């Protein structure tokens, strides 16, 4: 999308986009998942959410746009598919330029693919340690952190890339894998119609 | 016998061993873990152009970036996180990400992008530490790097202006400081009674904010209200750094002669104070000139007598009718 960001919700005549503002909006309407947490736990939750944004999101962007093989075979064709020629090429290369500029500003441009996989692995290890044997990250109820982690991990596990190394890294942490399965089973499968595969409910990567 | 390690870093001022957050992080961690680092300030050398700061040199290998340097020190058996559990290690990673995402942009803005702070504190400090002709472009280059980092990571598109993201980054930074304060509570350090790498990172980021004399900083005001964080900084300074003289670098290696070095550092501190005083006087006289111009050009307050000197301006302003 060239205007605004996904995901967004449309309520009456208001449009709210991106996870942070949507969470604030629902909280203002009286629905909050993290009300039961004390200040220290809320601090921890915010910190882990930043970890996911900092490591997983950046790694996803890197792999999609800065790894030439993936960008050429998968990302650019997919990103440019809704547009006619020559808009498809222009938009795809513009997006790639934007992402690469951002990567070099934060110091990721010099990283190799192996280093990025290693960072993802460390991030998953931290998440796995934090989750431990619990059902969700905080007590028995899911919070915003669970939603964020599920979104990223599920996407990585179900998206086809040039190599399976990234999803294999996640699969090596069994508690994270069962966490994803549990959420998918509890919250998504009752709405699933027969014949529909999990790929159809994955969040947009763009 | 451990191999000698040299750290290139920016020099110190305002009661801190270094004014540069990343350098301060490494210096603090070295103190916590007992690593013997020789701090080699890049002030007044051309190395500030050729090296990224901070850089660790050890036995021919070079490591940059605070996180990489800390990893390297851990591999050399200088591990301040030895007593942390795996869960605490995971928490460390999470809080470091929080600092990087939420606090760092606002810190960069407060020191390098905010016009008043940059003109009065940051640029004079760095220009005075750069050899000619680097003082003309090194601070400016750092300022534009800071600006582009903020815009690229926090702006909606690279073409955004800084004013639109300012409110957002300061709000997030204040929230981050609040979260750190909640997490610290009333303990001495973030994980019990021993300082670990997270303490080094938090100290490195908030100490310059706390100690610098920033003329306009809502973030500094906010930080000063969080007394446990201020106490945390002061505890680390008192316990780990010998801060007897302002601008004094900690004495790490017994081989470096203390007296000539600290004498020239004290002289630098005096020079810096003199410079600040000169700036204040210049600012005052600029203000007075401006007031004088305004009064002359304003129609209601046209002077009745011959034009008076600027030094008697306050009395003339008081005597004119409201």
UniProtKB/TrEMBL annotation, chain A:
The keyword Cell membrane does not apply. CDD domains: GST_C_Metaxin2. Belongs to the metaxin family. The gene is MTX2. It comes from Scleropages formosus (Asian bonytongue). One of its GO terms (biological process) is protein transport. Residues 4-96 form the Mitochondrial outer membrane transport complex Sam37/metaxin N-terminal domain. Its main location: mitochondrion. One of its GO terms (cellular component) is SAM complex. This is Metaxin-2. InterPro entries: Glutathione-S-Trfase_C_sf, Glutathione_S-Trfase, Metaxin_GST, Mito_Protein_Transport_Metaxin, Sam37/metaxin_N. It comes from the Eukaryota. Interacts with MTX1/metaxin-1. Associates with the mitochondrial contact site and cristae organizing system (MICOS) complex, composed of at least MICOS10/MIC10, CHCHD3/MIC19, CHCHD6/MIC25, APOOL/MIC27, IMMT/MIC60, APOO/MIC23/MIC26 and QIL1/MIC13. This complex was also known under the names MINOS or MitOS complex. The MICOS complex associates with mitochondrial outer membrane proteins SAMM50, MTX1 and MTX2 (together described as components of the mitochondrial outer membrane sorting assembly machinery (SAM) complex) and DNAJC11, mitochondrial inner membrane protein TMEM11 and with HSPA9. Residues 121-183 form the Metaxin glutathione S-transferase domain. Keywords: Acetylation, Membrane, Mitochondrion, Mitochondrion outer membrane, Protein transport, Transport. It is found in: Mitochondrion outer membrane. Coiled coil: none annotated. Pfam families: GST_C_6, Tom37. Involved in transport of proteins into the mitochondrion.
UniProtKB/TrEMBL annotation, chain B:
Residues 288-322 are annotated as: Disordered. Its main location: mitochondrion. GO terms for biological process: mitochondrion organization; protein transport. InterPro entries: Glutathione-S-Trfase_C_sf, Metaxin1/3, Metaxin_GST, Mito_Protein_Transport_Metaxin, Sam37/metaxin_N. It is found in: Mitochondrion outer membrane. Keywords: Membrane, Mitochondrion, Mitochondrion outer membrane, Protein transport, Transport. SUPFAM superfamilies: GST C-terminal domain-like. GO terms for cellular component: SAM complex. Residues 23-141 form the Mitochondrial outer membrane transport complex Sam37/metaxin N-terminal domain. It comes from the Eukaryota. It holds the Pfam family GST_C_6. Residues 173-236 form the Metaxin glutathione S-transferase domain. Belongs to the metaxin family. This is Metaxin.
């Amino acid at each position: 999308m060239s205007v605004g960001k996904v995901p967004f919700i449309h309520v009456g005549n208001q449009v709210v986009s991106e996870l942070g503002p949507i969470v604030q909006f629902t909280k203002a309407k009286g629905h909050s998942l993290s009300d039961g947490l004390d200040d220290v736990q809320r601090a921890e939750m915010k910190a882990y959410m930043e970890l996911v944004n900092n490591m997983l999101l950046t790694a996803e962007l890197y792999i999609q746009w800065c790894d030439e093989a993936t960008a050429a075979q998968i990302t650019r064709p997919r990103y440019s598919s809704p547009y006619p020629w020559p808009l498809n090429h222009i938009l795809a290369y513009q997006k790639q330029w934007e992402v690469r500029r951002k990567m070099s500003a934060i110091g990721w441009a010099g990283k190799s693919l192996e280093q990025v996989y290693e960072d993802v692995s460390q991030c998953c290890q931290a998440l796995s340690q934090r989750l431990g044997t619990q059902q969700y990250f905080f007590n028995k109820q899911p919070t915003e952190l669970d939603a964020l982690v599920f979104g990223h991990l599920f996407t990585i596990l179900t998206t086809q890339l040039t190599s399976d190394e990234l999803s294999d890294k996640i699969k090596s942490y069994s508690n994270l894998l069962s966490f994803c399965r549990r959420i998918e089973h509890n919250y998504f499968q009752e709405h699933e119609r027969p014949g529909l595969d999990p790929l159809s409910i994955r969040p947009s990567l763009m | 016998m451990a191999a000698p390690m040299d750290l290139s870093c920016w020099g110190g001022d305002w009661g801190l061993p270094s004014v540069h957050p990343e350098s301060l992080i490494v210096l603090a961690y070295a103190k916590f873990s007992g690593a013997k680092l020789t701090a080699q300030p890049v002030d007044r050398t051309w190395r500030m152009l050729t090296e990224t700061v901070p850089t660790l040199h050890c036995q021919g290998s070079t490591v940059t970036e605070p996180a990489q340097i800390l990893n390297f020190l851990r591999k050399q058996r200088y591990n301040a996180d030895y007593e942390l559990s795996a869960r605490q290690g995971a928490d460390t990673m999470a809080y470091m990400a929080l600092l990087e995402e939420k606090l760092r942009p606002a810190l960069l803005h407060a020191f390098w992008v905010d016009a008043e702070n940059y003109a009065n504190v940051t640029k004079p400090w760095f220009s005075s530490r750069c050899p000619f002709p680097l003082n003309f472009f090194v601070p400016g280059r750092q300022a534009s790097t800071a600006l582009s980092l903020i815009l690229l990571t926090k702006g909606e598109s690279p073409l955004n202006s800084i004013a639109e993201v300012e409110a957002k980054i300061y709000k997030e930074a204040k929230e981050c400081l609040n979260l750190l304060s909640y997490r610290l509570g009333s303990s001495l350090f973030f994980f019990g009674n021993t300082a670990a790498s997270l303490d080094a990172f938090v100290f490195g980021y908030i100490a310059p904010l706390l100690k610098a004399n920033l003329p306009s900083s809502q973030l500094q005001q906010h930080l000063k209200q969080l007394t446990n964080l201020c106490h945390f900084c002061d505890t680390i300074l008192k316990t780990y750094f010998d801060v007897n003289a302002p601008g004094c670098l900690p004495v790490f290696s017994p081989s470096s002669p203390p007296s000539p070095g600290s004498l020239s550092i004290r002289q630098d501190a005096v020079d810096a104070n003199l410079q600040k005083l000169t700036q204040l006087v210049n600012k005052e006289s600029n203000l007075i000139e401006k007031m004088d111009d305004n009064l002359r050009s304003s129609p209601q307050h046209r002077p009745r007598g011959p034009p008076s000197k600027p030094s008697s301006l306050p009395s003339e302003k008081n005597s004119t009718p409201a």
